[in-house]
Structure formats: structure tokens, C-alpha cells
């Protein structure tokens, strides 16, 4: 069947429509920024024949700091995140994604749920033990990100990422975010690393090293193990990385590990001893 | 959105201050619609992938890559293409600074620069660089383009 574009103004409308068209053996997708859907469909790498526009859903457009939480809707663009700058770590990660004009269209939900595996915008959410609000035809559930993000967001069929909640206590913590590219200042990363200091411990999340973004408590224990010298800790981290290490046109696996060592030095320089 | 046929929708677009109705497949990008349905060929097809910026237009005062947007998304919005700018200070500055060679990327750079001037009163060099990184010039006229934007900023202040 031909491509169809449907506007939804409530969560219920969107999720019901998703289930309905899927029941017709069609391939729906929620659509906000749409950049990945447009570009991947053009080269036949994404089979979507019904786009359900969720940009008008109020809950997906919330962007505020209340008494306890920073709340961000999935349809907030990366430019809006940068301009309002409620959470500087998130701003610094997001402003390195794509380019300024593209960021006017790319949404936070789209980056996190996308097919392109870097999904760098998820790093601050992993570091802050955020809570995600997910909606489907069966209702709404809230989940800790660590329970529903394993290499990618583990959405159930027809589920929509609505919002994320980050505890306010994280917003002003010391952090570092570095994106290293093969060359130039725009484009996909060789590695993106984000670090946050909380309760005296350094937290680290990484994108571009493996074909998925991750945060590993095992690696954080190694980084924070002050019984070892700094170079020993970095060597231990390198020895305990998840696999596979990417080996592609952006950089070889060997070079990525070299870059990671340098980035870990920078993270420790910035966050240790604060 | 009224359907006019099984594969087509009627979309109302407001472009350069004028209303247009187009009958298109909903999968048609705004870039293709502007060029093929409205014959506004100033926005250039380049990479079709959001990388080159040659198709940049302004929507509700925000720079957008029209290859990364479907025409159905642009309903109810104010669209400005390069054809909608008439002797703007930035266009004049591009001429005075020789900020183009082949000229293919020029509409995209001008629209992006124009959006910058609309949104920032006194952008820093860093900010200008950040914005202009959204566009690629294969003739590498980057120095002249930056000079043109700086000149237009000075003109705006005067």
C-alpha cells in the first residue's frame, strides 16, 4: 500500500492508530523529527509505510524543571535543548550531534530510538539513572532506563517513548563530554564519552566504541578503584570492555582503543579530585 | 487532511507570503514539492541526506533542510525560500565579498545566514562558525562566505 501520513494529537490516538494499521499488515512508525525515516526510506533501508506524527502530543513536548525533576518530552529538538540548557551535560552531548540546521529538526526521542547505532543523546540519561515514560495501546508505564535500555531502547511493539525524568540533583554535578571524530567538526563520532561525578564516584557512558552506546558499572568500579595507579585503571578498563569494538571506515578497533585511553585520561583529569 | 485519491493528499503551503495548494504523495519531501510543484528551484538538491545544506530554507524563522522534511509537515507554517528574499543585506554582502564560485550552494548558505541574522542580534564568530558548518561549499569559498555574513551583521547594526 502507498505511504500514509497521519497526525495524532493524543497518546491514545497515536498508539491506537499504530495498533490498527499494524493489524492491517502495514509497517507503522511514530514520526517526530523524521530525519532518519526520510533518509533511510529513500535508500530502501527502512520499511515504514505509515508515519504517525506525534509532534502535536502535549506530553511529548514538555520541557521544564519542576520541584524534583527535569522533564523532557521525546519531541523536543536538540536545538531547543541547547537553547534552554536546563541540563548542561545533555546540552553538550546534543550540540555535537549532526549540525545546527539538522538539530532544528532532530528530536531527543528520535536520536535515542533511532536505527543509527550511535544514539549519543542517551548517554546523559544513562548516567543519571533517568526514568522513562513509555506508552502503548495497553497504557502507560514508567521504567528506569537501566531496565529498558540494553544496547538500544527495548520498546515493546507499538510503544512510544513519551518523556524522560531526570532527578534535579544531577543537573548541577560536575561533568565532561567529549566527541572525537575522524576529522572535521561535524559528523559521526569515532568515540563520544560522557562522564559525571556523583557521590564521589565517576560515572562514564560511551558511544561509538561498540555498535551500541553503553554504561557499565563494572567499568566504573575499575575507573574508581584508587588502589590502582591511573594508568593501571585505564588498562583494566580497556581489558574489560564489551565487544565487539568497532572496526570501520571511521577508525580501526586498535585506533579506537588508543583514542579511548586518551579520553579516559581526560575524564579522570576533569573529574578526579573534585 | 482531505484525501484526493488513494495515494495523494492536498496540502496547503504558505511560501514567500503566498498560499499554494498542491496535490502530492504524502511521502514527498518539501524540497521536491517546492521544486517540482511550485517551480521554486532556488533550494538545491544535493545530498538528499541532510548533509550538504544546499536545500536550506526558513520555516517559521528557523533554518531547515528541506530534504529532511515532508511537505505535509509544513502545513500552517511560514516558508521562506531564496526566491522570497529580495536584495537582502546578506545577498548584497555575498556579491560584494565574492562569496561564491559555482553558486550551487549559495542559496542554502544565504538562507542559513539569513536565519542566523533573524535569530541572533550579535552572533559571535564561534556562533557563526557553528551555524555555517551546516552547509558545504565544494568550491571552498568558506572565508568569503564568513566575511559576507560578518559584513551583513555590521550592516544590520548600522
UniProtKB/TrEMBL annotation, chain A:
Keywords: FAD, Flavoprotein, Oxidoreductase
Residues of the FAD-binding PCMH-type domain: 1-171
Record-linked SUPFAM superfamilies: CO dehydrogenase flavoprotein C-terminal domain-like, FAD-binding/transporter-associated domain-like
SMART domains to which the protein is assigned, alphabetical: CO_deh_flav_C
Keyword Oxidoreductase: yes
Source superkingdom: Bacteria
Alphabetical list of InterPro entries matching this protein: CO_DH_flav_C, CO_DH_flav_C_dom_sf, Diverse_Substr_Oxidored, FAD-bd_PCMH, FAD-bd_PCMH-like_sf, FAD-bd_PCMH_sub2, Mopterin_DH_FAD-bd
One MF annotation (Gene Ontology) recorded for this entry: FAD binding
Classification via Gene3D superfamilies: 3.30.465.10, CO dehydrogenase flavoprotein, C-terminal domain
Name of this protein: FAD binding domain-containing protein
Lineage of producing organism: Bacteria, Bacillati, Bacillota, Bacilli, Bacillales
Amino acid at each position: 500500500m502507498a505511504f500514509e501520513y497521519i497526525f495524532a494529537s493524543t497518546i491514545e490516538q497515536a498508539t491506537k492508530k499504530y495498533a490498527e494499521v499494524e493489524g492491517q499488515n502495514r509497517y507503522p512508525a511514530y514520526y517526530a523529527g523524521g530525519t532518519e525515516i526520510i533518509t533511510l526510506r529513500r535508500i530502501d533501508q527502512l520499511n515504514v509505510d505509515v508515519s504517525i506524527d506525534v509532534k502535536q502530543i502535549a506530553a511529548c513536548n514538555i520541557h521544564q524543571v519542576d520541584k524534583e525533576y527535569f522533564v523532557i518530552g521525546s519531541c523536543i529538538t536538540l536545538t531547543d535543548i541547547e537553547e534552554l540548557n536546563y541540563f548542561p551535560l545533555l546540552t553538550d552531548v546534543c550540540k555535537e550531534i549532526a549540525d545546527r540546521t539538522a538539530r532544528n529538526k532532530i528530536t531527543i526521542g528520535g536520536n535515542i530510538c533511532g536505527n543509527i547505532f550511535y544514539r549519543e543523546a542517551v548517554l546523559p540519561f544513562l548516567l543519571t539513572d533517568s526514568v522513562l515514560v513509555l506508552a502503548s495501546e495497553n497504557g502507560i508505564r514508567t521504567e528506569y532506563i537501566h531496565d529498558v535500555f540494553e544496547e538500544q531502547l527495548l520498546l515493546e511493539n507499538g510503544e512510544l517513548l513519551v518523556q524522560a525524568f531526570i532527578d534535579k540533583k544531577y543537573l548541577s554535578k560536575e561533568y565532561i563530554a567529549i566527541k572525537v571524530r575522524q576529522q572535521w567538526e561535524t559528523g559521526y563520532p569515532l568515540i563520544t564519552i560522557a562522564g559525571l561525578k556523583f557521590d564521589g564516584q565517576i560515572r562514564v557512558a560511551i558511544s561509538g566504541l561498540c555498535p551500541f552506546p553503553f554504561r557499565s558499572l563494572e567499568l566504573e568500579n575499575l575507573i574508581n578503584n584508587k588502589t590502582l595507579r591511573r594508568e593501571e585503571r585505564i588498562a583494566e578498563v580497556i581489558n574489560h570492555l564489551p565487544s565487539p569494538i568497532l572496526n570501520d571506515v571511521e577508525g580501526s578497533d586498535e585506533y579506537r582503543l588508543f583514542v579511548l585511553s586518551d579520553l579516559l585520561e581526560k575524564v579522570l583529569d576533569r573529574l578526579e579530585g573534585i | 487532511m482531505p484525501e484526493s485519491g488513494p495515494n495523494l493528499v492536498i496540502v496547503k503551503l504558505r511560501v514567500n507570503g503566498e498560499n499554494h495548494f498542491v496535490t502530492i504523495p504524502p511521502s514527498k519531501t518539501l524540497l521536491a514539492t517546492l521544486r517540482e510543484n511550485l517551480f521554486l528551484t532556488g533550494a538545491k538538491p544535493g545530498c538528499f541526506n541532510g548533509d550538504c545544506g544546499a536545500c536550506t530554507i526558513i520555516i517559521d524563522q528557523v533554518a531547515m533542510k528541506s530534504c529532511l522534511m515532508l511537505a505535509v509537515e509544513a502545513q500552517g507554517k511560514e516558508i521562506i525560500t531564496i526566491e522570497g528574499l529580495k536584495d537582502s543585506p546578506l545577498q548584497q554582502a555575498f556579491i560584494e565579498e565574492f562569496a561564491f564560485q559555482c553558486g550551487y550552494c549559495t542559496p542554502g548558505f544565504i538562507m542559513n545566514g539569513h536565519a542566523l541574522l533573524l535569530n541572533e542580534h550579535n552572533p559571535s564568530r564561534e556562533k557563526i562558525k557553528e551555524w555555517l558548518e551546516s552547509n558545504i561549499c565544494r568550491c571552498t569559498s568558506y572565508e568569503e562566505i564568513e566575511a559576507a555574513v560578518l559584513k551583513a551583521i555590521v550592516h544590520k547594526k548600522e
